[in-house]
Amino acid sequence: MLRARPERGLPVVEAALGEELRRLRARVPSLTGSVVAASDGLVLARDLATGDADGTAALTAAAMGVAVRMSDDAGHGALRELLVHGEDGYVACYRAGSAAVLTVLAQARINVGRLHLESRAASGRIGRLVDVATRDTPAPLRLPYRQR
Questions:
Q1: Residue in 95, 21, 24 with CA at minimum distance from that of residue 61
Q2: How many C-beta atoms lie closer than 10 Å to residue 73's C-beta?
Q3: What is the pTM of this model?
Q4: DSSP state of 7
Q5: Distance between CA 100 and CA 142 in Å, rounded?
Q6: For residue 53, which of 109, 2, 104 has the smallest C-alpha distance?
């Protein structure tokens, strides 16, 4: 679990995560929100106009767990991302380093290619921030659904 460690500057990392989410929304105007969560469903950062970040993070953890099993059973290797297309929009989840997941919510009219392009880049930056912040903690976050 993430814990504030003054020497690692976790509050600074949390602020950087929030800023990354705001930049992502500015680059992809059809986004309706985003959440960065630890693999266990702990919310690390949020940028939601409406909705429950805690609920979104918990559902992300559960959905990623199922998606990993599907990818593994299909022989497609380690899961990288998950895309859910509903009647009124999209939910996309991207692995963000070894300890977190970026979940983005988008309107149905979004350009999915643009969504992937910007979100993949953001998840890489977010992953590096979280991994550095958790590298030296006694019990680092681990993805329970991470491929072996």
A1: 95
A2: 8
A3: 0.84
A4: T
A5: 8
A6: 104
